[in-house]
């Protein structure tokens, strides 16, 4: 579609028709205008598979959505440190999108893992913005290279589930640009996603969906984004203000009132027709570029989905991503042999319910209805490896008989594989985790099994870090994270050495929750969450403050060993506009083939600004046969050394001496060299200075007084609202001193049983998600989530009732029936 043709189409549309295009027509379709030749465009949840809702055929599909390949989620794939791998997975997902007529898949997610308690962390890549941005760019290129659009989400600073639909994220400008917005910038510049999804929360005071500074000045003018901005589902507040700010599309359909509000805003002059035309332009560009994936012609021109190949890719991806965290005495891999006797050397004991009923994905809107699932038990049988099995627990319960049976199994074999992990009820969209511990029943089981047989390898299934005070009790710890539908196939390949674990951690694992930099500031609410720790996220804090961790960022063992050497730089001085190349060798010094992920860290030795000890600026993955050595080359553009300067409000590179460190993790750097850099000289204010209050962080101590100065805006009051002061942004769960508010919450929970229940097949997780989501839902969504059944005028009257001001007559008088 040419620009001239688009202009012609838009010129013939009425204001009302344009307004209608700025909202979806259903939960998953944009608004078509057949009379103008404008088709609908179909979307689907992602990001680790196609979640195309189809509740009408739940029985035939085996779930509430079409069957699709469930690839390892982003938290898992991130540990491969491979944009090439995320691209291959993205391409496979695109093929399935085309198969089901989906034009845009909603992913990837690049929100930073501020705290290990984040309930949606399994949907995100990393605590590091460079790694997250590069992996997202790989995924976007893979999907869009096959003709399907993507939606980079959730823009921005959407890092906690508690009160996520109304809370304000108070982040200072340096942390915002150098940490939380950076992965979006990298992905946009390197992959050009078709769409960006604006998040639920407020950013520095304004809802993301109507934040002009965020959506226009930063996203479009600073980052160069030229695609469509859509809202997260139910994230809008003032729709005309959203259009003016740069939010082109509201999803899903929320009733006719939003379109009418846009028309009235144009008529009154509040919203210019040029701004409305810009939103329609962005939408139609996408529609004509991507719509038609469900057309017979497109379907016929594409080969059928090779489901078996995609299942193998899911297994391969997990093998590359699995992280070997401990392997005392080279306990893994097992030899595929057997012998007779009381203790069968070839037979292993497999213990843990997740060996039979694997947890392979997170809970929430990303839940995939898998085409096929292989458990560890089924994969062991298929591979012909002898074993005995005892579940040891059921859900979060472990009876004495269950534990005794597991102990007996452990005693009957030389070696034990103990499968542990977090259930859906511990981590799911809609609520944050409460602690880092595994379920008590699993810890009880672990103690009993290791006491009966010390030769234990733990397979860990979790979407984010867990506390491991029991680590010394086991020989090996192999973290599969959430492994996708082929988790069993991959696990067997890794246990028996067919493949070598190839992953390294994309986030730090703390010793304890109180060690985390935001321990005192997560979660917060109901009005605001303050990011007191600023730049000091993950390893940027731990390494700077010298805090001991269980496993550092970038850590991962192998069945072999690697040495590093020969670090050289292409230049001794880096000047503006230039690119420096760091070269070094990696050698496999062990007896097995394996992959090493080499990491390059930058240390700013003479910065006038407060800075973390080091930041990741490059990485490379290399496959090596035993004894093989290869040279890696990592390019370092001048811009990679930039940081945000709050005085000039731009990215700058400081002049001075820098160090480059190369190694196997942030705590295991083996090579180092220095470089002189030409740039600017800064004279920051005291709060931003290297010798200021943020210059030497320790003990998670980031006083609110200092943060308020860094933030530069008045902090909001987190006192719960009282009746008479409720607003459209007050969560339903905080309106409980109103009888009407209590009844609305009950009604919302009844409705949630038929909608949010699909967040998880685990009833406990679904119930918890329903309770949390409805409690935190702001009052404005009483209208937004009912698709026009309760229009805004009726919702406003109902709010007056909750505040004790009357309004029942107005409520019923404004209903559309």
Describe this structure in words.
The longest helix is centred in the N-terminal third of the chain and has 18 residues, at 83-100. The strands form seven sheets. Strands 9-14-13-12-10-11 form a six-stranded mixed beta sheet. A five-stranded parallel beta sheet has the order 1-2-3-5-8. Residues 338-343 have low confidence and may be disordered. The protein is of the alpha/beta class and 817 residues long.
The number of helical segments is 25
Assembly type of the shown chains? Answer: single chain
Relative helix content:
25-40%
Distance between the termini: 42 Å
Describe the global form. Answer: globular
Structural class: alpha/beta
Radius of gyration: 27 Å
Summary of the model, kept short:
With 817 residues, the protein is an alpha/beta fold.
Keyphrases for this structure?
single chain; 817 residues; six-stranded mixed sheet; five-stranded parallel sheet; 25 helices; 31% helix
Q: Topology, pairings included?
A:
Elements (H helix, E strand, L loop, with lengths): L2 H9 L3 H7 L21 E3 L12 H4 L12 H4 L5 H18 L3 E3 L22 H16 L4 E7 L12 E3 L2 H8 L1 H10 L3 E4 L3 E2 L2 E2 L4 H11 L5 E4 L7 H7 L10 H13 L4 H18 L5 H6 L5 H15 L1 E5 L16 E8 L24 H8 L3 E4 L9 H12 L1 E9 L18 H13 L3 E6 L14 E4 L7 H9 L13 E2 L17 E3 L8 H7 L3 E3 L10 E8 L3 E2 L4 E10 L5 E11 L10 E10 L4 E9 L5 E3 L4 E3 L3 E10 L2 E10 L26 H8 L27 H17 L7 H14 L4 H4 L7 H11 L5 H6 L4
Parallel strand pairs: 1-2, 2-3, 3-5, 4-6, 4-16, 5-8, 10-11, 10-12, 12-13, 13-14, 19-27
Antiparallel strand pairs: 6-7, 9-14, 15-17, 18-20, 20-23, 21-22, 21-26, 24-25, 26-27
Helix pairs in contact: 2-11, 2-12, 5-6, 5-14, 6-8, 14-18, 15-18, 16-17, 21-22
